[in-house]
Amino acid sequence: MSSTTDKVSGKVNEIAGKAKQAAGKATNDREMRAKGAAQEAKGKVQTAVGKAKDKVKGAVDRM
Question: Cα 27 to the chain's mean position, in Å?
Answer without folding.
Answer: 24
